[in-house]
Every structure is written in structure tokens, then in C-alpha cells.
Specification:
The protein starts with a helix and ends in a 6-residue tail after the last strand. It is an alpha/beta fold. Among the domains are: 152 residues, no CATH class; 72 residues; 183 residues, P-loop containing nucleotide triphosphate hydrolases (Rossmann fold), CATH 3.40.50; 93 residues, Ribosomal protein S10 (Alpha-Beta Plaits). The protein is built from 26 helices and 31 strands. The structure holds adenosine-5'-triphosphate (ATP) and zinc ion. Adenosine-5'-triphosphate binds next to α13. The site of adenosine-5'-triphosphate has 19 residues, from α13. Keywords: ATP-binding, DNA replication, DNA-binding, Helicase, Hydrolase, Isomerase, Metal-binding, Nucleotide-binding, Primosome, Zinc. Belongs to the helicase family. PriA subfamily. Its EC number is 5.6.2.4. Its cofactor is Zn(2+).
């Protein structure tokens, strides 16, 4: 294996694959001593907080995740501090006598992590009363520092250990009856914490939805059972009503609420209260779901269902996936199927196979393509599907989570967070449109669902199926060096041809036509489409009306005071808005700088395009779809079903309309400006452009009437646009890989980014310089070859009033980049009064 192969996004095996059967069983001691070295005990009350803020000794060392053939040996190992155990034994000339050892080892310890600083893990003693019940994956209350109240923490391990020479404090209380995540998920949390350099407590907060943690939609109910050892004599001495209550309870033999008892006996709740006081009735409090949670019914958009006979190509793909499912091994499959090749049907059939063996599956899709159509396709084929989406109420989310955990759900469909769905018997994970950037979370923990899904699948010994018409460079590279198995579906179903793509060179005046965004050829094509009773889709990846507001007299650009980015003019309501922070003002009627009366709105957004389209095609029914028009729940679904029913002739909008839609009557797709993503200061700009154009082009020609695509561009010769216009994915990746290789950019090398932000520019920059110095010395100490760029202001130099600087680290191996940062920042602190934050983004997808 080469160095290059080894650091690929998909190849690292973060932890030892486990027997699938064991994976969902919660064991009380899933971590051996060697997996979790002795963690420090909780800071005692006497120590000042500052003493225990130092996180160096508490991070999980990188060698916790043993390597295998795909994961190169961690180069940095032996420099760990000697463990506390080793230090302790050195103090003794001879070993302690055996009886002392026995006493010491008798202590049961819990390793606890916290989501707020200090993050732990710290060791606590488990008191005898909790011995039986405390399991990893549960929340506990423990004493921490000087705090009066106990602090909420997560138990990550239960282990036997020594209490000698350590001041151990006791776990105070259990906050859950059963673990919120099983042993396999606890391990996933620990791995994520390590890989993404985030405290494990914060990963738990991401993994377990807040609605679940808060018990949304539940209430506490008290159930009564009769005390043990009640004699008939005791009972007959009770007043009549109380007797009746006790006898009823004994004869029914099931715990009952006070209200139910009162009704059954025909008394008030008073006798029950008295019995409780006398300890004849024993209360038990349970948390239960409300029976009346409103689960929003979601309807299909009207697509007709038919049983499909798989094409030969689909059948071959299915067989390979089924073989992988049956193999019981963790492996990655890349399903590269052109747009309209019928990937969804393959996923469904593969999941049917999993379900037939009592297994379950997760399907992740970009939120935006979680259309009623996608939903409907799955819901009509499985008995029990849980669809997770961002517009769910907390109680609804909690309700589904419980169903999923109880094993009542066969398929979970959702955006990236669905990767954490606590399904027992998970047999397959599918990541549809795996190239989509929404699979990366852009807040802490900045995880990528593909990477996490890979970790989870490998640990459980199940396949991860990646699907796309335009696979990411990472997935493609993995398939080329044997880390993922490539399954190709090069043809559309029913032998439909790929649509013809025509490039319109906007530099040529004749092509461009008059004023406006719709060129002459596109104009003609739309008219033709409408005449033929077909439908059209126009893509423009910018919302708003005008994207700049500039004074033609003094050149002043109206910008956001907090972000320095130009404000976008929105026509409805005459607002000028910052698209980075939502700062909004009334659009100024004259120049705020020189008072010139005649300020100009430049640049093109979807609102302006809509106006132009309505003027140019007065007979067409036109709908706009962007995040401004799709704010209300259900609006997405409504527009899509109108489009399906033929009540809309033209759909125009942002990338929302580029993904996953399958409407047979779309005869024309127009791309207003293919270059919009091309000139971003990002090494993935060409890849994004290729994907966007290919995906939107793929929305046409999906029926029997064929389809065509018109792509407007200022750079028709650009390789990404050329390749997209010929549906030539292979040519694109081949050329793009050469570019990546020049600078060892992913997937050939690994990148991490550190963002430093603060209210004062010079102080923020000074902190960034300080981090650079630490990174350099960590690199030298490790003897690693990491390229460090910056600190420099990123393209967005100021955001929400904070100045920003960033550093980029790049090396051939991910482990080297990670370890360099871990070492550099281990005990790095900033002065709290400067309010400077720094955050680490491993494998960033956004460099703005
Ligand atoms: N075996 C088949 N026979 C006939 N029609 C099929 C078959 N398989 C799928 N289809 C239909 O082909 C259309 C395209 O399928 P699907 O939406 O799954 O494509 P896709 O590969 O996911 O495309 P995209 O990447 O563009 O989303 C759908 O309308 C689907 O019902
Ligand atoms: Zn702003």
C-alpha cells in the first residue's frame, strides 16, 4: 500500500470490527483496560478549576483504535506520558501483598465525559447501590469541582480499577433507566471525538437529539404495586375503600395508576394516598410518551406506483450488493449510476433483502431531496419507515427515536444525522447523492456523514453503499485503489438516451441576445417546450433580486456592517439582506456614502430571473423555488405536486431544483450561469461545477419524449463544463485528479483547517500567529511533513462582527495532520477577556 492510498477518506478503519451480533448488546465493560487507559479521577473539590482545565492528559490517545491492513500504523505512539499505573508501581520496591491488591481491584469505576469544560473523561467510583444499573451510554449526575449541584455527564466505560492513591468521588445518581446508546455507538462517539478533535460529551449531544435527552412529548406517570409480604390479616384491618384498592391491585397483578384505581374501585384518590403513606402501595415513576402526539402525516406527491422489473444492469448491481450484505463483512460499495439509471429501485431491493433477514437499514439523502417522491417510494414498499427531517417537532422526533430503538422500524430515511439512528440489527447503510456537501456538518462537531457511516459500518461488519451519478473525488479515488468496490450503471432505464447538451457562449453578443439573463437559444427553446406542452426547469444558483447594490457615482457598495459582504437586494418588501448573517435593512433609495440619487442594483438573483421569465413568457405558469419561497412547511411538497400535475410549466430556482427530481415531462433544462460556482477560491470549485451541471441536466429526458439542456457560460472551454456537456464523468475525474495531485489536495492528501475568530483584528491575528508557532513546533517534534498555510484572512474575512483568520494544514496522511493539531492545541488557551475562539475543521468542504 502506498502512502497516498493510506490516507484516503474512506480507507481508515477507525476501530476493530466487531462481531455483528455483539455490536448491539450493551455490555457493562466494553472497553478493556488497554482500550481505555486509566483516566484521571475527577478533579477534587479542593483543586482550583484552572488545575483541571488542562486537557492533555485526558484525550483518548490515538492508539486506542488499533490499526489493521487498511489503516497505517500510527506513527506517534511511544511518546505518551507514562500511565498513572506505571508511575504508581514504581513507587513500590516490592509488589503489594495479594490481599491488598484484591481490595484495590474490587472498586468499580465509571469513566465520565462532559459536554462543557472540563470535558473529562474522569474516573468516579460506582457506589454499590448503582453497581447493577450503571451502563456505558447512560447519563449520570456527578460532583465536579466546587459545584454545589451535581453535573450531568455521560458514562463511557465501566471498569474495575484501583482506588489506591487516588481521590475518587462517587457517582451521585443515574439519570437514565437504560443506556441512550449501545456499546457500539459509545465507541463511535469516542472515535468521533478523537478524529474530529471534539470533546466526547459534545459528540453525545449531537448523537442523541435534544428532544430525546429532554424526553420531549413524554410525561411522568406513577404506577402502584402492593407491598411485598402483605398478609391477609393486615389487609382486612384496613378501611373498606383501602381494602378494595389493595385487593383489586393484587388480583389484577399489574402496576396501575391512582386515577385508574380510583375509577375501578369507585373512590377518590384519597385512600390511595393514605395507602402510599403507610407504604402498603409502592409507587414507581415511569416516563411515557403522550398517547396523543401529532405525527404529521406526509403525503406522496401523486406519483403512481408500479411494480418494476429490474433492468439487467440493476439486477447485476443488486446481486453485488446482496453478496456484500450476506458476507457479514464491513465493506464500501460505490454505485456509480448515471442520472435516471434507477438507483433508488436498487436501494429498495437491496433493503428488502436486508429486511427479509430481520435486518434494518439507514438511507441518507440530502435534506433537499427528501421529497415526497423519495419518501413515497420507500413508504409504499416497507411496512415501517421512519422519515427524519428538520421540520419535525421535538415530540415527533423523540417518538420516532424510541420506535427506532425498540426495533420497530425497518428503514430510517433522513439527512446526515440519520447516520446515528439507533437501529438494532442494522444491516446496511446507504448514502444517496454521496457527493453532496450537506453531508458535512458546518458546526461542531464538524463530521462528515460518509466518514461516520463508514466507521459505523466497518465496526458492525456491514456494507456501506455510496450512490451517485457524480461521485465525489474521494469516493472515486477509493474505488480506484481498492478501498471501495465500484458498481457501474452507465445507462438510463428503458434505454433512454442522455439528453443533448448545448453550450451557449455568453461572450458572443449574438448568442447572448438583448438585455436580460435568458439568451437567444434558451429563449427559443423555452417557447418550443411550452408549445409542445412540455415543462422546463431553469437553474440559477443565487437567490434574491440583485446581488450587489452599488453607487455608479462614487463606487460605494452597500455591505453588511458585520460581515463586509455585499448585501443582496430582495424585491419583496424592498429589503437589503446579508446572506451570511441575515442582517436586513430597507434597501437605500440613494447612496449612503455620497447621497447620489440613482443607486444601481447589479447582479442577478432568482427573483429578477422570475420577473424576466414572466415578461418573456407571459403564457407560461411559472413557479420559483428557493429558500425564500420555500420557508413554510409543506411549500416544497405543494410546488412539486403542482409541477407533477402539469399545473406549472416552468420551475426556476436554486440548486434545490437540481437534485433527485424525477418528472418525465421535463423536456428542457436551462442553466443560467454555469460559471457561478467556478470562480470560488476553493480547490473543489471545478468538481462542484461539474456536479451541479450534470445533476440539473439529469432532470430532463426521463420520460419517453426525450429532453435537452442549454448551458449558458462565459467559459465554455473549461474542462468541467466540457465534461458535463458530454456526460463524461471519467474524463472529468481523470483531468481533475491531475490538478489535485499537483498540490496533494484531497483525495490525494488530507486537509484540515483551523479558524480563529474574535472581535479585535490585531488580537485575533496574534492568536493565529501563536497557533502557527505551535503547529510548527509540533510538526518539528513529530518529524512530520505537514504543509502549513497561513494564517490569512479567509474569503469571508469578517462574519457576524468577528474578524476571521484561518490556517490550512495539508499532508499526505490524515493521521499526521490530526496528530500535529492535537499536539499543538493540547494545552492551548486564550485569554477569556479577548473573546477569541478557535475551531478545528478536519476534512473541510467549505473554505470560505
Ligand atoms: N427497472 C425499471 N424499469 C422501469 N422504470 C424504472 C426501473 N427502475 C427505475 N425506474 C424508473 O426510472 C426513473 C429513474 O429512477 P431513479 O429516480 O431511481 O433514478 P436515479 O438513478 O436515482 O437518478 P438520479 O441520480 O437522477 O436521481 C424512476 O421514475 C423510476 O421509477
Ligand atoms: Zn452579515
Amino acid at each position: 500500500m502506498t502512502m497516498l492510498d493510506s490516507q484516503l477518506m474512506l480507507d481508515s478503519q477507525p476501530f476493530v470490527p466487531e462481531d455483528r451480533k455483539n455490536a448491539s448488546v450493551v455490555s457493562s465493560a466494553p472497553f478493556s483496560q488497554s482500550t481505555f487507559p486509566q483516566t484521571p479521577s475527577a478533579p477534587p473539590a479542593e483543586s482550583s478549576p484552572a488545575e483541571f482545565l488542562n486537557p492533555t492528559s485526558v484525550t483518548v490517545p490515538s492508539d486506542s483504535f488499533p490499526s489493521d491492513e487498511l489503516f497505517p500504523p500510527e506513527p506517534f505512539k511511544s511518546q505518551e506520558e507514562p500511565s498513572a499505573d506505571a508511575a504508581q508501581t514504581e513507587l513500590f520496591e516490592t509488589n503489594p501483598p495479594p490481599w491488598e491488591l484484591a481490595v484495590e481491584d474490587d472498586v468499580l469505576l465509571a469513566s465520565i465525559v462532559f459536554s462543557k469544560s472540563p470535558h473529562g473523561p474522569y474516573d468516579y467510583r460506582i457506589p454499590d447501590s448503582l453497581r447493577e444499573d450503571l451502563k456505558p451510554g447512560m447519563r449520570v449526575g456527578v460532583p465536579l469541582g466546587h459545584r454545589k449541584k451535581s453535573t450531568l455527564g455521560w458514562c463511557v466505560a465501566v471498569k474495575e480499577g484501583s482506588a489506591a492513591h487516588r481521590k475518587l468521588r462517587d457517582v451521585a445518581e443515574l439519570l437514565d433507566d437504560t443506556p441512550l446508546c449501545d456499546a457500539a455507538l459509545v465507541r463511535l462517539v469516542m472515535w468521533m471525538g478523537h478524529y474530529y478533535q471534539v470533546p466526547a460529551g459534545q459528540v453525545f449531544d449531537t448523537l442523541i437529539p435534544s428532544s430525546v435527552r429532554a424526553g420531549a412529548g413524554t410525561r411522568q406517570t406513577t404506577y402502584f404495586t402492593p407491598a411485598k409480604d402483605l398478609t391477609d390479616e393486615q389487609i382486612s384491618k384496613l378501611p373498606a375503600k383501602q381494602q378494595a384498592v389493595v385487593r383489586l391491585l393484587i388480583s389484577s397483578g399489574k402496576p396501575t395508576t391512582a386515577a385508574e384505581l380510583a375509577v375501578a374501585v369507585g373512590c377518590t384518590e384519597d385512600p390511595i394516598r393514605r395507602l402510599r403513606k403507610k407504604e402498603i402501595l409502592i409507587p414507581e415513576v415511569r416516563r411515557e410518551m403522550h398517547s396523543n402526539i401529532r405525527i404529521l402525516a406526509q403525503h406522496n406527491d401523486g406519483e403512481r406506483k408500479q411494480k418494476l422489473e429490474l433492468t439487467e444492469q440493476q439486477q447485476a448491481a443488486l446481486e453485488r450488493i446482496n453478496t456484500a450484505v450476506d458476507s457479514g463483512r464491513g465493506r464500501t460499495l460505490l454505485l456509480h449510476g448515471v442520472t435516471g439509471s434507477g438507483k433508488t429501485e436498487v436501494y429498495i431491493k437491496a433493503i428488502e433483502h436486508v429486511v427479509s433477514q430481520a435486518g434494518s437499514a439507514i438511507v441518507m439523502v440530502p435534506e433537499i431531496s427528501l421529497t415526497p417522491q423519495t419518501r413515497g417510494r420507500f413508504e409504499s414498499r416497507f411496512d415501517s419507515v421512519a422519515v427524519l427531517h428538520s421540520q419535525m417537532s421535538p415530540s415527533e422526533r423523540h417518538y420516532h427515536w424510541q420506535r427506532i430503538r425498540r426495533g420497530e422500524v425497518q428503514v430510517v430515511i433522513g439527512p446526515r444525522s440519520a447516520v446515528f439512528a439507533p437501529l438494532p440489527n442494522l444491516g446496511l447503510i446507504v448514502l444517496d447523492e454521496e457527493h453532496d456537501t450537506s453531508f458535512k456538518q458546518d458546526s461542531q462537531p464538524r463530521y462528515h456523514a460518509r466518514k461516520v457511516a463508514h466507521a459505523r459500518a466497518m465496526a458492525l461488519g456491514i456494507p456501506l453503499l455510496l450512490g451517485s451519478a457524480t461521485p465525489s473525488m474521494e469516493a472515486w479515488h477509493a474505488s480506484q485503489c481498492g478501498h471501495a468496490e465500484l458498481i457501474s450503471m452507465p445507462n438510463r432505464v428503458a434505454n433512454r438516451p442522455m439528453p443533448d447538451v448545448q453550450l451557449v457562449d455568453l461572450r458572443i453578443r449574438d448568442e447572448r441576445g438583448g438585455s436580460g439573463a435568458i439568451s437567444r437559444p434558451l429563449h427559443a427553446a423555452v417557447l418550443e417546450t411550452i408549445r409542445d406542452k412540455g415543462q422546463a426547469i431553469l437553474l440559477l444558483n443565487r437567490r434574491g433580486f440583485a446581488t450587489t447594490i452599488q453607487c455608479p457615482s462614487c463606487g460605494h457598495v452597500v455591505a453588511c456592517p458585520d460581515c463586509d459582504m455585499p448585501l443582496t437586494h430582495h424585491r419583496d418588501g424592498g429589503k437589503a439582506m446579508c446572506h451570511y448573517c441575515d442582517y436586513t435593512i430597507g434597501t437605500p433609495p440613494w447612496c449612503p456614502a455620497c447621497r447620489f440619487d440613482g443607486i444601481r442594483y447589479g447582479g442577478l438573483g432568482t427573483q429578477k430571473l422570475e420577473m424576466e421569465a414572466k415578461a418573456k413568457f407571459p403564457n407560461a405558469r411559472i413557479a420559483r423555488m428557493d429558500s425564500d419561497t420555500m420557508k413554510r412547511p409543506g411549500s416544497h411538497q405543494r410546488v412539486l405536486s403542482e409541477f407533477r400535475n402539469g399545473d406549472i410549466d416552468m420551475l426556476l430556482g436554486t440548486q434545490m431544483i437540481a437534485k433527485g427530481l424525477d418528472f418525465p415531462n421535463v423536456l428542457l433544462v436551462g442553466v443560467i450561469n454555469a460559471d457561478s460556482a467556478l470562480h470560488f477560491p476553493d480547490f473543489r470549485a471545478a468538481e462542484r461545477t461539474f456536479q451541479l451541471v450534470t445533476q440539473v441536466a439529469g432532470r430532463t429526458g426521463r420520460g419517453d419524449r426525450g429532453g435537452r439542456v442549454i448551458v449558458q457560460t462565459f467559459t465554455p472551454e473549461h474542462p468541467a463544463i466540457q465534461a458535463a456537456s458530454r456526460h463524461d464523468y471519467h474524463k472529468f475525474v481523470e483531468e481533475e485528479m491531475v490538478n489535485r495531485r499537483k498540490f496533494n489536495y484531497p483525495p490525494l492528501g488530507s486537509v484540515a483547517r483551523i479558524i480563529i475568530r474574535g472581535p479585535l483584528e490585531d488580537k485575533t491575528e496574534a492568536v493565529a500567529d501563536g497557533i502557527l508557532a505551535r503547529l510548527e513546533s509540533a510538526r518539528d517534534l513529530l518529524g512530520s511533513e505537514v504543509r502549513i498555510l497561513g494564517p490569512a484572512p479567509p474569503p469571508i474575512g469578517r462574519l457576524r462582527g468577528k474578524y476571521r483568520f484561518h490556517l490550512l494544514l495539508q499532508a499526505t496522511e490524515a493521521a499526521v495532520v490530526g496528530e500535529t493539531i492535537r499536539r499543538a492545541l493540547a494545552d492551548f488557551k486564550t485569554d477569556p477577556k479577548d473573546e477569541i475562539e478557535f475551531l478545528v475543521d478536519i476534512d473541510p468542504v467549505n473554505l470560505l
